[in-house]
Write a structure and sequence with these properties.
- The structure is a single chain.
- With about 130 residues, the chain is of the alpha+beta class.
- The chain is built from 5 helices and 6 strands.
- It has a single domain, classed as Alpha-Beta Plaits, CATH 3.30.70.
- The N and C termini lie far apart (about 70 Å).
- The relative contact order is 0.18.
- The structure holds iron/sulfur cluster (SF4) (2 copies).
- The site of one iron/sulfur cluster has 12 residues, from helix 2.
- One iron/sulfur cluster binds next to helix 2.
Length: about 130
């Protein structure tokens, strides 16, 4: 019997993890890497991960043993400000290529803070509002 494998096209976007109805996929972060994990005991074999994967990276070919099997490990990028894990380097490359802009690794909190600063700098009304104090 053959089952779950992830090929080299995986960029660690985590769409499969977010869309697995059985919590059979997970990701573990270390300082520099993100590892995708698959749990054969939980897997409902529904194929949802395969359907949502934007990279065609999931292949059902090999039987895996044990509870959690590491199926791929990728370089992890962290927030430039607070060092929180953000996304993988291959995911950043994929998106940056699509939008033709090099993405800066920022966590949602610091991306929002930076957007606020940019708005204040470029929209005179917003800047003034912050300057006026009661
Ligand atoms: S590229 Fe596919 S296999 Fe890799 S994390 Fe994204 S959805 Fe999962
Ligand atoms: S086949 Fe279904 S249950 Fe198994 S890992 Fe993929 S989405 Fe989860």
């Amino acid at each position: 019997m053959a089952y779950f494998r992830v090929n080299q096209r995986c960029n660690g976007c985590l769409a499969c993890v977010e869309n697995c109805p059985a919590d059979a996929l997970s990701a573990r972060d270390t300082q520099d890497h993100r590892t995708l994990l698959h749990n054969m005991a939980r897997c409902a074999r529904c194929g949802n991960c395969w359907r949502v994967c934007p990279q065609d990276a999931i292949e059902f070919q090999h039987l895996l043993h044990g509870d959690w099997d590491a199926v791929t490990t990728l370089d992890l990028l962290r927030c430039d400000v607070c060092n929180a894990p953000v996304y993988t380097a291959p995911f950043s490359e994929t998106v940056s290529k699509k939008i033709q802009w090099q993405m800066k690794p920022l966590c949602p909190r610091h991306r929002e803070a930076l957007d606020g600063l940019a708005r204040a700098a470029y929209i005179p009304g917003e800047h003034k509002k912050e300057e006026v104090s009661p």
